[in-house]
Structures are given as structure tokens and as C-alpha cells.
Amino acid sequence: MLIPHDTRIALDVVVDLVNTAPGRDGPGQDGLAEVSSLSTLVEKYSISDVGDLGQKDLDAVREVRNRFENVFAAPDARTASELINRLVASAGTTPRLTDHDGYDWHVHYFAPGASVAEHLAADCGMALAFMIVAGEQERLRRCEAPGCGRAFVDLSRNRSRRYCDSRTCGNRLHVAAYRARRREAAG
């Protein structure tokens, strides 16, 4: 599956944002508890044109995060598309080509002067729309490891990825299964 660079980054942002929801980084913890957490996310992904961030931005981004979570939980493409359409429409999209900060030409969907929440809703919403249009909604997944449930986008060739991280969740389950087989064999 060929995904343009800017769409891939937007999908990474969506995943990171969804995984900040309470309960993803430990019981009851919110990965976006403070404006500084939002600033860290903005810096990590070099999100441009967002200005100074405040509590209002944080509250709006949390709302967008909840809406993205609903897309990951959508039972079918029709439901997901309705959620994405409302999300993108609420952001007041204004597609435009740009080649800023050393990146080659790509499309920004947010309007000039948009808030960080509108920016995320537009660009990340369009990345999720790309997955629906490509018939790839099933690639928007949750980790199958017990007690995890973190979001990820399965970009494996055969859509076989089951865990958010094979080195942690996947390995932990494989080791547990191995130990259970050893105990059973030892009798």
C-alpha cells in the first residue's frame, strides 16, 4: 500500500494522539494532561502554523482525540466515513499545496490561521479518509494484547499485525505462551 509521506505522518499523529487517552499509558492517566504535553506532540511532529498554545487548545484537541477514537472503534466503513466527514467539516478545510520546512510538495487541508485542533482534525481526518477510500479501514486497529488496546495502523503487507509493538506486547504474549507450553509439558 503506497501512502504519501504527509499522509503517513498524519496517521502517526492520529495514533499518538489517540494513545494519549486516559487508560492507554496506565490506569486513569491522560497523556494530554497539560498544555506542555500538547506542545511536546506539536514539536515531535513539527506541526506548523499553530501559534502559542493554551488551555483552550488543549481542551479542543482532547475533543478531537475523542472523535478520532470513535473512528478507530467504528464497526464499518460507512460509520467511519460519517464520523470523518463530520470531523473534517467542523475544521473548515481549505486544501492547499505547500513545500515548507524542507518538505517536498504536499497538501495541507487546514485553513490558514486554524487552531491546532482544527489543524489536526483537517489533516489527520483526511489521512483517515484516505484509508477509507483505499478500502483499508481494517488497518485502523487496537492492540490485541490483554490490557493494552493501544491504537495503531497496520501497514504490514498482509494485514497481519496484531500488536501495537511486537517487541513489547507481542513478545510478552509469545513468552507467556511459551512458558504455558513448558509448564503443560512438565506436567
UniProtKB/TrEMBL annotation:
The lineage of its organism: Bacteria, Bacillati, Actinomycetota, Actinomycetes, Kitasatosporales. It comes from Streptomyces pacificus. This is CGNR zinc finger domain-containing protein. Residues 139-182 form the Zinc finger CGNR domain. InterPro entries: ABATE (IPR010852), ABATE_dom_sf (IPR023286), Znf_CGNR (IPR021005). Signal peptide: none annotated. Pfam families: ABATE, zf-CGNR. It comes from the Bacteria.
